[in-house]
C-alpha cells in the first residue's frame, strides 16, 4: 500500500489499524525551535475522540498521544517527530461477524480484492480511527502557523443547513455545543435530529465549513499543486467525504463573470471574495473558505443485506458503538488537514525569498 | 515554482507560457510497446483548441503537437516522451495594457506578489493554455487504458442544468454539438444562451460531468491517495474549477445511511451506486462519476475597475478573443486529467500482484 | 529536517534519537500476504546490536523490535508496517560533557548551525543508532526478495585487506567470527588488530564488501535512478561511509576498453563481470558486488581538542562505550540498505509487465 | 521508465534519445528574477560537446540549447524552464549493424530485456548524449549559486594519476588544455597517452576530481539524504561511472581515528579536512572534494565478440566516432550534477529559517 504520506516538506506518514496495538505516525519537516503546547495537542485529540458527547459513538478510547522523538526540552529539534496512540479498547470479538462478510458501502470488499488479505477487525486500516494521527500532525502544524486562524464548523446535518454567511457567525461558539455548529439555535435542532436518527438505528450525513483567516499572500503552487487543489485532495482523503467546493463553489458555476469577479481595493484586498481567497492556485490574502460534504456513516443498526466471501447475500445488523452522524467529530479533522496543507505550502513558499 | 508535475509512476511535467515560444511537457513512466494512434491524440487537441466553433474563443491556434522522444517506429519505448506545442499566434501587443495592471479575479496580482516578476503576456503560466499539454498526456493515458471508457460532457451552463441521469444519455451525441452536451435539445438551449452572454460582453460558468466505465476493481490507494482524492485534486488543478463531487456528492450529505448504502449483488456489483464506483478510496468496479464546477471566465468585454502596480484603481475593458463559457473546451481536459490519474493508479496497482 | 525517508514504492521512514524514548519507523509499500519470519528479523537486529562481542561497543541494548501495525495473523496486510525499538539504556548523564561542546569529526557543530538547537545526548539523530530501524526494514525486504541472496562481509580493517576474490570465499563463514570476515585466518588477524586499537584508546576504519546473487535481469531505472546510483546513495547514507565502488570500481578507471568489456555467452550471461552485474543502470543477471569504505569512529578514548559553543578550544576525552571499529556491526546495515533498494526496484519493475 | 527526474525543489526532468529529433528537459523550481548569462550556459555546452579537440569524438554536434519557457526579458520567472537541444547530426545508418546485436558492456541487452523494445540507434536513451540536458540545468544552477565555486578536473587517465593535492593546483589552468588537467606537464602526458590509445583502436578510463568551495554551513539533510549521499548518487548516475569517494575516501578507511579527526579552529573551521567538508551529511563550510571513477568507453575500434538477439555470438567492430577517453568531456557533467545537488539543498535549507 502506498499513499500513507501527505505533504512534500511538512510531511506526515501514518500507520495503524483500528484494532492493532497502536496507531501513530511520523511528522517530517517540522522546523526546529518550536516550543510545543502539549495541552493544545491533546485538546485537538479530545475534539476528535469517541465518547465525547451523547451524539457520537460511545466507544471509550482515551486517544493519548505519546511522542517518541523530535522533541527535546519541550521544543522541536527539526528531526522527525514520531508518535504513537495506543489502542486500549480493542474488542476484536465485536468483529468476528464481519470476518467473512463485506458490509455494504464499506471498504471490506475492495480491500480483499486489492490485497487478497485484510485485517477485518473494525475496518482495519480503512477505519476512520486512522484520522487520529492526522489530528496530532495538524495540531503541530497549527502551532507552526500560529498567525493563521483555522476554524471549521458543522454547517449542515442531513437536510438541516445553516445558511448564515460565516462572516455573521461567532466562531467562539463552535465548541459551545456537541454538534460544533456556532449558531446555537440551529445546533440544538441538529442535536435533536441526530438523536432521533440514532433512535431509528440510522445515520445521517452533513457538511463541514472551514474558514482560514490571516493567510499571507503567496501560498500555493500554480498548475498542478494549486492551493485549493491540495486542500481538496486533503479533504477528500478524509473518510466518508463526497464533495469539496471553495469560494463560490458549485453556485459560482451558475453566475456571470460580471457578477463573479472580485474587484480590488487599492491595498490589493478585494471588495467581494467569491474567489475564496485563492487566485490561480495562490492565496491572495483574503479569507479562504470551503465546504466539505460527508456521506452518512455506512454502519447502521438496522438489518441489511451484505455479501459474504462465498458470493452469498446474507442478512446483517450493525454491531458495536458507531456514530449516528460523523460531522461533529470531523470538524477537528478538517482543521487538521487544512493546517497540514498550509504548513507544507508555507515551507515551500520560503524557497522563493 | 514547484508543482508542475502530476503523478507518481505515470508522471507528467509541463512547461510553457501562453505567449512564449512553445508549450510542452514530458510524460515519464509510459510502458513500452504501445502502438500510438497519433490521429486520436490530435483529435483530443482539436476538442480543446480555440476557434473550433462559434461559441468559443476565436483565436487561431493550430495546437499541433510534435513528439521529440520516447517513440520509435510508432511505438512507445518506455523512455520519457518529450513533446512541444509551438505557440504560433502570439500577439504580445494585445497584452501591453495589462503589463502594469492586475485584472480582477485573475492571477496577475498573486504572481507578482509571490514571484516579484512575471510574464504578463496573456496570463503567462497561469493561462489555461497550459492545459494543452495535459490533453496530450491524457490522450496517451487513454490509449494505455484502452479498456476503460472515459466520457465527460457539459451538464450545466450557468443556470441551465441537464437533470437527466447519465445512464439515460447517449454519449455518442456528446460531440454532435459545439456545447458537448449529449442532450441535443438542451445543447441548443445552452448554445443560444452562450451566444447571448457573449453579446452582452459577459461570460458564464458551468458544470462538466465525467463518467468512467469498465474500471477494474482495485485502483486507488487507501488513506491519503484515495482514488477520488486524486481525481478531485486533478480536477481542481484545472483553471477556473471551484468544486468537485463524486457519487452522491453534496446531495449525499443530506441522506440517511439506510438510503445511501449500496447493497451488493452476489457478483460483487451493487444494486445502486451512490458510492460513485469507489469504496474507501479504491475502485469497486462500478461506474465512477463526478461533477466539476467551473466559474465564469474572468475576462469580460465590459468596463471593470482593475488595480495597477502603483496601488491605483483604473478602468479596464477586456481585449482579445476570449471564451464566453469555458466548459465546452473543458470537456477534453477533464477527460485527460481523469485518464492521467487512472493510468498512474493502474501502474501502482501492478505492484501488488 | 527532510530526508528521513528512503524509496519510492517500498518506502521506509524512520524517526528517533539515540537517547529518546524509542526509535522506530514505518515501512510503506510492502506487498500483502508475506508470512513474516520474526526470528529472522530479530537475528538481523542481533547482528547489528551493541555488546554482541568483545570487539564492539559494550553498551547493553536489547534492540527488541515491536511491530504495531501492518501485520495480521503473522502475515503482511499491505498496509504500513509501524514499529518501535525502545531505548532501554539511555544514560543521559554520560553526555553532559558534550552539551556545549562540538566533538571533532562529529555532527554536533553542523546540527547546531543548521537547526539552532539539538538533542545533544549521544549524538541525537546523528547517532548510528538510527540504523537499527533500517535493519528492521531491510530484514523485511530480504523476506520479500527471498530468491535474491545478499551477503556482506568485512574485507578490510584499517590496513588489513582481504584480497581473495569473493568467488573464492565461503559466505557461510561470515558469521563464524566476530569480525564477520569469511576468511578465518584474516578474521583472527583483524580481531587482534581491533583489540590492539581499542587498547590504544583509538579507532580504525574498514571496508565492507557486498555481493548480491540471483538478481533477475531488469532491476534499476536508467538515467538518474540507475541501480548502482541508488545503491551508492543508500550506502553513502550510512554513518561514517566515505566511498562506494561497484564492479571494477576505481581500478576499472585504469583499464583499457579491450580489457574491461565483458564478453557475452550465448545465454546472455558474460564471461567476465567487471561491470558488476549492472549495465546502463539495469541489472543484467550477473552478480552485483560493491565495496563500501568506512572511516574510523570519531570518538576516541584519548585527549583531543574540541570546540565549545563560545568559540573556545577545550580539551576532551571520549566517554562511554564506543566501537573501536565499526565495520563488523556495519555488515547487516549494508545488507539491509541493499535489500531496501532492491525491493523498491523490484516493485517499480513490475509496472512494466 | 521512471527515474528521469533529479532533485526535490530544484528539479530537472530530461528526455531524449541520441538519434531522436531533439533532447531536452524541464527545470522546475528555479527561483524568479535571476538574470541569466546565456553565453555562460552555451560555454558549458561547448565544454561537453563532441568535436571540441583532437582527443574526443569527432562527431559534429553544435549542441545549441533553445529555451522555450520560464524566462522573460532575460530573467527567470519562477515558472518551469523548458528547453530543447536539436539533434542535427543523426546518422541512423551508422547503427544498423547493432539493430539485432547486443554490444559488450553496453546497455543494449538489458534494455531489450526490460522493455521488450528499444530505439537501437546510437544507444537511444542510454547514450551519454542525455547528459547534454544535465549540463544546461547545471549551468543555470551554477548561476543561482553564484557564491559557490565548483571546479572539476581530470586527475587520472588510465594509469596516469596526478598526485598533487588540489590545494596546490591552479584551477585557472583547467581549460588551458584539451584534457582538462590543471597540471600542464601531466596534461601533455595524458594527451599523448589518449592519442596512443586511440591509435590502438582502444579506449581508457580515468578519474575526475571535483572541488566545491565557499559552501555555506548547513546544506544537506541528515539520515538518508546526506549531502555526500546525494552527490554520490548524482555522480554514479553519470554514464560510465564506477566509483565515488569524498574527503579521505577509501584511504580514510585505513586510518586511525586519532589521525583522521579534523580538529577545530576557534571559528568553527578545521585544521585538517579529511571529512571533505561534510559532517553527518551536512556541509561544515570547509571545501567539499570528491573523486569520480569512469570506466573505459565500451565501444572500441577492434574486433570483439557480441551477442545477437537469436542467442548467437557474432563478431563486431565498433563504427562511428567515439571518445577514446571520456573524462575530458565528463568534467562539465560532474560540475553540472554537483551544481544541481547543491541548488536543491540550498532551496531545502531555506525552509529552516
TrEMBL record, chains A, B, C, D:
It comes from the Bacteria. One of its GO terms (cellular component) is cytosol. NADP(+) binds at residue 48. FMN binds at residues 125-127, 239-240, 280, 295-299, 321. One of its GO terms (biological process) is amino acid biosynthetic process. InterPro entries: Chorismate_synth, Chorismate_synth_AroC_sf, Chorismate_synthase_CS. Its EC number is 4.2.3.5. Transmembrane segments: none annotated. Coiled coil: none annotated. This is Chorismate synthase. It comes from Flavobacterium glycines. The gene is aroC.
Amino acid at each position: 500500500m502506498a499513499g500513507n504520506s501527505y505533504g512534500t516538506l511538512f510531511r506526515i506518514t501514518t500507520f495503524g489499524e483500528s484494532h492493532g496495538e497502536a496507531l501513530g505516525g511520523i511528522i517530517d519537516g517540522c522546523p526546529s525551535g518550536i516550543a510545543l503546547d502539549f495541552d493544545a495537542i491533546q485538546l485537538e485529540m479530545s475534539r476528535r475522540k469517541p465518547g465525547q458527547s451523547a451524539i457520537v459513538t460511545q466507544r471509550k478510547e482515551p486517544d493519548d498521544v505519546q511522542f517518541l522523538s523530535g522533541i527535546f526540552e519541550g521544543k522541536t529539534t527539526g528531526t522527525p517527530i514520531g508518535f504513537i496512540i495506543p489502542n486500549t479498547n480493542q474488542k476484536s470479538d465485536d468483529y468476528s461477524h464481519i470476518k467473512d462478510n463485506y458490509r455494504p458501502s464499506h471498504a471490506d470488499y475492495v480491500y480483499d480484492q486489492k490485497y487478497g488479505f485484510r485485517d477485518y477487525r473494525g475496518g482495519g486500516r480503512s477505519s476512520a480511527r486512522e484520522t487520529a494521527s492526522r489530528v496530532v500532525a495538524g495540531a503541530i502544524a497549527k502551532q507552526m502557523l500560529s498567525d493563521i486562524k483555522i476554524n471549521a464548523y458543522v454547517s449542515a446535518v442531513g437536510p438541516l443547513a445553516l445558511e448564515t454567511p460565516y462572516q455573521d457567525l461567532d466562531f467562539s461558539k463552535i465548541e459551545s455545543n456537541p454538534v460544533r455548529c456556532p449558531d446555537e439555535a440551529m445546533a440544538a435542532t441538529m442535536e435533536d435530529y441526530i438523536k432521533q436518527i440514532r433512535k431509528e438505528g440510522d445515520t445521517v450525513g452533513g457538511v463541514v465549513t472551514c474558514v482560514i483567516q490571516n493567510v499571507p499572500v503567496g501560498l500555493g503552487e500554480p498548475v498542478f499543486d494549486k492551493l485549493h487543489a491540495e486542500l481538496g485532495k486533503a479533504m477528500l482523503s478524509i473518510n466518508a467525504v463526497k464533495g469539496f467546493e471553495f469560494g463560490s463553489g458549485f453556485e459560482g458555476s451558475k453566475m456571470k463573470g460580471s457578477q463573479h469577479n472580485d474587484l480590488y481595493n487599492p491595498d490589493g484586498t478585494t471588495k467581494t471574495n467569491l474567489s475564496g481567497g485563492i487566485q490561480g492556485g495562490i492565496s491572495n490574502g483574503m479569507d479562504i473558505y470551503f465546504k466539505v460534504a460527508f456521506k452518512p456513516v455506512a454502519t447502521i443498526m438496522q438489518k441489511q443485506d451484505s455479501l459474504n466471501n462465498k458470493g452469498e447475500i446474507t442478512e446483517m445488523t450493525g454491531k458495536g458503538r458507531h456514530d449516528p452522524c460523523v460531522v461533529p467529530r470531523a470538524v477537528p479533522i478538517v482543521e487538521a488537514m487544512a493546517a497540514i496543507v498550509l504548513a507544507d505550502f508555507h515551507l515551500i513558499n520560503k524557497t522563493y525569498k
